[in-house]
Amino acid sequence: MKNTTLSAEGFESTYALIVRSEEKERNLFEGVVYLVLILTAVVSIWQAAHQPVAFLRTSTSTSIAQTSDINNRT
After folding, report:
1. 50 in any annotated domain
2. Three-state SS at 5
3. Which residue in 1, 26, 50, 56 is a FRET match for 70, CA 20 to 30 A apart?
């Protein structure tokens, strides 16, 4: 793997080429996108944590039986 390239100005590292060719506006846009993704994940977790949970009752069959007993008495 070659770390330097020969150009008219002399030797230049691959890292120097990458840094020089970086797009500053793209980095800002990517930062904003990552921030929005993190915020949506945090809000989703917060909403799920504050949402009430409804549990099913196991005594529904006994209440039906009690209701039929009351109807049969009358």
Report:
1. yes
2. strand
3. 56
Total count of domains within the chain? 1
Its domain, for residue 54, covers: 23-73
pLDDT digits (tens, 9 = 90+) for 33-43: 999 999 999 99
Residue 30 covered by a domain = yes
- DSSP letters of 21-71? H--HHHHHHHHHHHHHHHHHHHHHHHHHHHS--PPPPTTHHHHHHHHHHHH
Each residue's pLDDT tens digit, 8-66: 556 788 888 777 777 777 888 999 999 999 999 999 999 999 988 888 776 555 555 55
Phi, psi torsion values for 48, nearest 5 degrees = -65, -35
